[in-house]
């Protein structure tokens, strides 16, 4: 075989076929006319079997060469239905591929040599067929049938077109012997980063991972938590999550949160649950800029929100964005309300004195810094300055109202735009739910509830319509999830429940598509320390520059990337992104042959030898990178390089999805998915998206012809 030679050369004619033909002819001769070889019939049979056995060995060697040459030009089709996706308790299935080694770099280098071009590039017949397709595109009937025949996608068509995946098939065809590639589940807690440009398979890879996460059970039969953040709104991802939840019997724990369709969305309060009251201020003020002069304003905003949150909790009210915005705009009402409750408990007669002070107030005796405040607020402040009363919440509110009104409005100016983003329109109903409204069928969830129920959450943030609001809501959710992770890390999931075991953890699979649109400083502690609470982040984005541009700091961007132990690199267009993979790989030695020939004249003109000649085949070695950035740029769609399990490089291709006939959704989710398909155009046609379309009729690809889906509410199946 070719592998036994000093230099492996598979791009060559299959010369073994000549031997196969000779062996077949000899075997036939031994069977039909053994007397021609001076053999009796029995010996003819024995020799025929010997020739056939040797021919079979040579045919196997020829098949290696022929299969290699075929894969270099066209890979075998790899299709899998979601039902057939393997689910394991030990491994995460990624696709089919091979571990990239020195011999694969050597084979790839050979494909670029000019003497092997005819085995790598399309054949003249193929090129002729494509030219005829273009010329006969609008030809009349007889010739149009020829065009259809040339473009027929069937193995019986010798010139059928290549699949529309682009790239270089040789990158995967250099290893015909593929295996199923998996990632040990123990490695996922180190987080995974998926990089790839637009429309090359990031979301399809996410579907593959999410399908397994939804259907996986542990040894005790418990499911895992699955949370998917989808900023742009992919209807196929929503459909896949629901279908897999239904197959696993988990449709009752499936929640959809979507900013684009608040009437169909579940509701969520990002600041309603906390371990320490200061977390409310951290989640809100943490989204403000902390660079340069903005740091002082963010610190004041944190203190001010913390004062409001403490007062709301003392009043028995659950904090939400609407309440906080209301009191940021008008702190006087909260000061009065809290003072009424405080004095009612501690000193009921204090209000008589306060009312008397209020009656004596006028423009002349009102302090300058209290101008513009309500008279009762001024009276309260003067009363508290005369009476020694210590209450941390009351003192905080008092210090807030003592600021000059004009100065106060300036220092909270950076906080108000953020709160406006989170409380405008119907979004306010989602982020500040009314817990007492029993007539509202939309469920309310929080992350601790989701984790305890082992639920599935799809988060659609409608970033194409309003990127600012999507980023603000995404940051709030990440910040809340970080807080929950900290609680789980300290006390476990079932803390506070009867019979709870301390330190109980389970995998929490967080899939963040286009996570650069959502991330902020809150994302860093999630990937840095969230693994201790069982959080397994799989983040999907396009380039490293997207992360750096979002955070605004190269050091922080490097900190984020440095916390991902598993790297999946699809086709990228930015060289710096490709170098994130290639710079981590070693160099290897590749071999090449050089033909050397020469002649030497004889120094003796009268001797019998006029000249001497020699011809040599020399083998030389060159040190080259295992792969180059240009190879990452040339990846076909649906293929990737994966750096997993401690730096092992794998070349992988993902299965193409095949439809299943039983994929059905409830009516409200079908309408939502259909509207997403109509409203959210592909990345290449985003400018054609409608601004606010009505919900369309049921899409045909989501209809189940065999059985009707139950009519259920979102999150209540």
What does this structure look like?
The structure is a single chain. By secondary structure, this protein is an alpha/beta fold. The chain has 4 domains: 2-73; 96-178, no CATH class; 188-269 and 441-564 and 661-717, Rossmann fold (3-Layer(aba) Sandwich); 270-432, no CATH class. Helices cover 42% and strands 15% of the residues. The chain contains 27 helices and 17 strands. The strands form 4 sheets. An 11-stranded mixed β-sheet has the order 3-2-16-15-12-4-11-10-5-9-6, with helices on both faces. Strands 1-17 form a two-stranded parallel sheet. Strand 15 (639-644) and strand 16 (648-653) form a beta hairpin. Helix 8 packs parallel to helix 9, helix 13 (331-346) runs antiparallel to helix 16 and helix 14 (350-360) packs across helix 15 (375-386). Residues 682-717 have low confidence and may be disordered.
């Amino acid at each position: 075989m070719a592998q036994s030679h000093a230099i492996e050369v598979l791009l060559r004619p299959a010369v073994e076929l000549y031997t196969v033909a000779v062996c077949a002819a000899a075997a036939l001769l031994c069977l039909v006319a053994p007397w021609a070889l001076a053999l009796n019939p029995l010996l003819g049979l024995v020799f025929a079997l010997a020739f056939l056995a040797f021919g079979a060995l040579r045919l196997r060697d020829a098949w290696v060469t022929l299969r290699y040459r075929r894969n270099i030009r066209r890979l075998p089709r790899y299709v899998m239905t979601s039902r057939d996706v393997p689910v394991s308790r030990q491994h995460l299935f990624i696709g089919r591929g091979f571990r990239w080694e020195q011999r694969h770099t050597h084979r790839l280098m050979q494909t670029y040599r000019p003497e092997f071009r005819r085995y790598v590039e399309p054949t003249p017949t193929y090129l002729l067929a494509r030219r005829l397709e273009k010329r006969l595109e609008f030809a009349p009937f007889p010739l149009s049938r020829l065009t259809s025949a040339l473009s027929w996608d069937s193995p019986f068509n010798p010139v059928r077109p290549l699949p529309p995946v682009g790239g270089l098939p040789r990158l995967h065809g250099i290893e015909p012997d593929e295996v199923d590639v998996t990632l040990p589940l123990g490695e996922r807690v180190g987080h995974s980063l998926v990089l790839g440009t637009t429309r090359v398979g990031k979301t399809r890879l996410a579907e593959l991972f999410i399908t397994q996460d939804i259907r996986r059970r542990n040894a005790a039969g418990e499911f895992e938590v699955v949370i998917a953040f989808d900023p742009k709104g992919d209807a196929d991802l929503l459909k896949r999550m629901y279908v897999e939840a239904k197959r696993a019997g988990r449709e009752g724990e499936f929640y959809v949160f979507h900013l684009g369709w608040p009437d169909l969305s579940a509701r969520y309060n990002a600041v309603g649950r906390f371990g320490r009251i200061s977390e409310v201020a951290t989640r809100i003020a943490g989204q403000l800029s902390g660079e340069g002069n903005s740091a002082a304003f963010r610190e004041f905003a944190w203190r001010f929100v913390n004062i409001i949150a403490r007062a709301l909790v003392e009043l028995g009210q659950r904090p939400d964005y609407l309440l906080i915005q209301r009191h940021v705009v008008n702190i006087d009402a909260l000061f009065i309300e809290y003072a009424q409750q405080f004095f009612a408990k501690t000193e009921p007669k204090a209000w008589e004195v306060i009312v008397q002070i209020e009656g004596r107030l006028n423009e002349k005796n009102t302090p300058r810094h209290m101008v513009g405040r309500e008279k009762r607020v001024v009276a309260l402040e003067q009363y508290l300055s005369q009476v020694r009363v210590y209450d941390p919440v009351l003192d905080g509110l008092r210090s807030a109202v003592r600021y000059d009104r004009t100065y106060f409005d300036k220092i909270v100016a950076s906080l108000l735009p953020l709160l406006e983003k989170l409380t405008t329109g119907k979004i306010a109903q989602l982020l500040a739910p009314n817990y007492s409204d029993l007539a509202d069928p939309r469920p309310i969830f929080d992350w601790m509830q989701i984790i305890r129920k082992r639920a599935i959450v799809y988060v659609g943030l409608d970033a194409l319509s309003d990127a600012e609001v999507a980023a603000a809501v995404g940051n709030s959710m990440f910040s809340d999830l970080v807080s929950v992770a900290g609680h789980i890390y300290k006390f476990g999931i079932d803390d506070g429940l009867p019979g709870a075991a301390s330190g109980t953890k389970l995998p929490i699979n967080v899939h963040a598509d286009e996570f650069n649109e959502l991330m902020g400083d809150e994302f860093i502690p999630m990937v840095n320390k969230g693994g201790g609470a069982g959080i397994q982040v799989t983040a999907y984005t396009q380039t490293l520059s997207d992360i750096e541009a979002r955070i605004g700091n190269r050091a922080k961007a490097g900190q984020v990337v440095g916390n991902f132990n598993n790297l999946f690199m699809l086709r990228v267009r930015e060289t710096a992104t490709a170098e994130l993979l290639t710079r981590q790989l070693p160099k290897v030695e590749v071999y090449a042959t050089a033909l050397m020939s020469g002649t030497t004249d004889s120094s003796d003109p009268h001797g019998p030898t006029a000249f001497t000649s020699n011809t040599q085949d020399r083998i030389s070695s060159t040190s080259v990178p295992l792969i180059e950035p240009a190879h990452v740029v040339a990846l076909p769609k649906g293929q990737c390089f994966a750096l997993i399990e401690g730096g092992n490089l794998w070349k992988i291709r993902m299965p193409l999805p095949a439809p299943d006939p039983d994929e059905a959704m409830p009516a409200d989710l079908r309408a939502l998915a259909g509207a997403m398909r109509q409203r959210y155009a592909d990345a290449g046609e985003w400018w054609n998206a409608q601004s606010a379309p009505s919900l369309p009729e049921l899409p045909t690809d989501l209809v189940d012809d065999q059985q009707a889906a139950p009519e259920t509410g979102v999150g209540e199946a």
